[in-house]
Amino acid sequence: MELALYSLPFLWQGVLISLAVSVLVTVLSLAAGVALGTAATFVPGPVRWIIRIYCDIIRGIPVLVLIFTVYYGLSLLVGVNFNNFMAASIALTVFAAAKVTETARGALQSIHFGQTEAGKAIGLGFWMRMIHIIFPLALRRFLPPWINIVTDIVKGSALVSLVGIVELMMSMKQVIGRTYEPMPIYIVGAMIYFAINYSLSGLSRRLEARYAYIRE
Known about the structure:
Blueprint: H1 2-42, H2 46-59, H3 63-77, H4 84-109, H5 113-121, H6 126-156, H7 168-179, H8 182-210
Helix pairs in contact: 1-2, 1-4, 1-7, 1-8, 2-4, 3-4, 4-6, 5-6, 6-8, 7-8
């Protein structure tokens, strides 16, 4: 117990970095994923196939490979250099956006075409139909899997330590290097990750209850 309390101040900075990476990746991947998912659903032709190929390829690549590719590979291939924080955030965003794209596409395609026809019948344009009819109906089906993606982002943020970012996992290793007692530190770290992800799960349940009144 004493060692766990001793480690908390050292782990706090790592928690903040982990949360910063997670929030940044969540926001960027949500924006990109919803845009791509909408395009994959409603834009015909090559655009749909390009998005589908992107999702299939990216989801089949380990996140660690993406991080190393962005951090080391881009400078060699195209001469673009990112610092470790930006490289890790970009790699995680690219991976998470592919998942969000498929989630958004599935949620949008699950809405019965009659809803779109009803919007057309009352004179609504495409974006008005999306904002007032399609998106609200799809939201209830989008939220649960999206929260799961967010929890994966939080857990995936531990991988950024491999490019030198001192987030929670790296902070734990540094404390273990001082104390030579890994088990109490790992228990504290696991409790921190559990607290974050359990809070996200609770938020998911509240959001589902909040939007459960939406019916087709």
